[in-house]
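Render Interferon-induced transmembrane protein in 3D.
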Amino acid sequence: MSEELEGQASPNPQPNQPSQQPFNQGNPYQPQGQGAGFGFGGMQQALPNATAVLVLGILSIITCCCFYGLISLVLGIIALVLSKKDIALYLSNVGMYTEGSYKNLKAGRVCAIIGLVFSAIIIIACIIFIATFGFDMLRDQEAMKEWIMQMQNQ
């Protein structure tokens, strides 16, 4: 009988004998698996692209008038794609990431949307201007000045 129990842990371990219980089995509140709980050393970490999304969102607002709004359009789209990935990452494990980085991510997303709207307005205005006056008016500054002077005199 002692041979049968030799490979197994005894149901009542003696105080001097170590327990044969596997690690983390006794603590139901211990995070299990990778990605569970907190980041490095029990501390929360920032979302990887939160700062980049915020910077790109702000730049998309600032550059909405550069090159007919195309730079702003590109920066806004990049910011929205990065923010979508980070939002999914944050929602998959809320406790691992800081709330401040999530707020920065949301602010960058809002700035990117505002930049996209401004750039869309500028692009639509350029299309209307080109459809109305043509490319020649854009190239010839003298013709543009004459047209402006005619509009002011009327």
